[in-house]
Amino acid sequence: ERALQGCLVRLEEQNRQLAESQSQEGSTARKEREVMLRLKEVVDKQRDELRAQAHEIICKSRDTEALQEQLHRFMAMNEELRHKVAVVQAQLKSALEKKSDLEAAMLQTQREMSRRSRATSESQQPKPSLEEAASPMEEPQHQGSDVGSSPAHCCFSKEELQQILQERNELKTNLFLVQEELAYYQRELLNEKRVPSFFLDAMKSNIKRQRKKIRAKMLGTTEESASSGDEEGSWLPARGAGCADPQPPESNIRSL
């Protein structure tokens, strides 16, 4: 009986120890599960953050590409506006020169008329007393007839002078446009590394030949014989209707 009681006590002690160990193992497993859940939440959160950052990087790269395209477009517009401003400045300059030339021509005409009137009044001899009374009334008529009958005065009319000045200003504008076009194509061709050097030389010779034609037309002289360099650039297409004439027509500037 005592042996049975001792065995029962030992069994109860072992049962208690097993229960305690089982409870400890259950708490450890719960802690491990909690830790795993927390780690999973952290990993999921970091994965979401990485996806959001990748999407933001893609959006920013697209915005950067759009800004670069817009920058290139603005640069092209700026270059075009600079060219237009240069053309407008050339037209304004030619208009101012035309105005100054017209004013100078008007002053010269007035001076010539006054000089001729003085010369006419000085060249007239004193007449008899009967004609002296009528001479002050007839003097303006004589002056008008002398000025109107003068061959030098009738050489060019006001409309012809205006036409000559307009023609000269147009030729100046065409020359300036050719120079601007030459500078523009020089910049474009120098930036392009694949363009051969002989093409640049041919382009320059062609532009020089066109400038010589415009200058000859402005001065009203005959164009000089084309050199070998001009003949090499003759295969290029002519740019501008005002610069493509092989021989300048008869100009009013030459007659002036």
TrEMBL record:
GO terms for molecular function: dynein light intermediate chain binding; protein dimerization activity; small GTPase binding. Coiled coil: none annotated. Pfam families: RILP. GO terms for cellular component: ciliary basal body; lysosome. Transmembrane segments: none annotated. Residues 153-230 form the RH2 domain. Keywords: Coiled coil. Residues 108-152, 218-256 are annotated as: Disordered. InterPro entries: DZIP_RILPL (IPR051241), RH2 (IPR034744), RILP_dimer (IPR021563). One of its GO terms (biological process) is early endosome to late endosome transport. This is Rab-interacting lysosomal protein. It comes from Merops nubicus.
